[in-house]
């Protein structure tokens, strides 16, 4: 495999990992909203916003949410290491921002 094809494949892999990371975050948030926040009788109306720090998932009562949070964190670390070691140009990895 040539160097350009290798780099292109690596970028495609990073894109796929980025999409997967985003889906994991959405699903963890949904699980918490349907579980723990509902149990606490916290309700949201259409148009309400909810902000939180990532570590909120580490303190979840649900062990599956905690495991997903750990997986997501490891994915982000791995993605950052790949980016750091491969000297990508900013425009090549702007999809990660």
H/E element string? HHH
Q: What summary fits the major beta sheet?
A: none
Spatial separation of the terminal alpha carbons: 28 Å
Which percent range describes the beta-strand content?
under 5%
Specify the overall morphology. Answer: elongated
Low-pLDDT runs of 5+ residues are none
Could you tell me the mean pLDDT?
87
State the secondary-structure class. mainly alpha
Helix content: 55-70%
Number of helices: 3
Radius of gyration: 17 Å
Tally of strands:
0
What is the topology?
Layout: H1 3-34, H2 36-39, H3 63-85
Short key terms for the protein model shown above:
mainly alpha, 97 residues, 3 helices
Structural notes for this entry:
This protein is mostly helical and 97 residues long. The chain is 61% helix and 0% strand. The protein has 3 helices and no strands. Helix 1 (3-34) runs antiparallel to helix 3 (63-85).
Please outline what is shown here.
The protein is 61% helix and 0% strand.
């Amino acid at each position: 495999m040539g160097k350009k094809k290798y780099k292109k494949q690596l970028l495609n892999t990073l894109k796929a990992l980025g999409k997967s990371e985003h889906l994991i975050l959405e699903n963890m948030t949904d699980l918490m909203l349907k579980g723990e926040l509902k149990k606490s009788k916290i309700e949201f109306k259409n148009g309400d916003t909810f902000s939180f720090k990532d570590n909120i998932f580490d303190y979840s009562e649900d062990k599956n949410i905690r495991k997903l949070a750990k997986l997501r964190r490891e994915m982000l670390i791995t993605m950052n290491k790949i980016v750091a070691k491969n000297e990508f140009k900013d425009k090549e990895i702007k999809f990660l921002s």
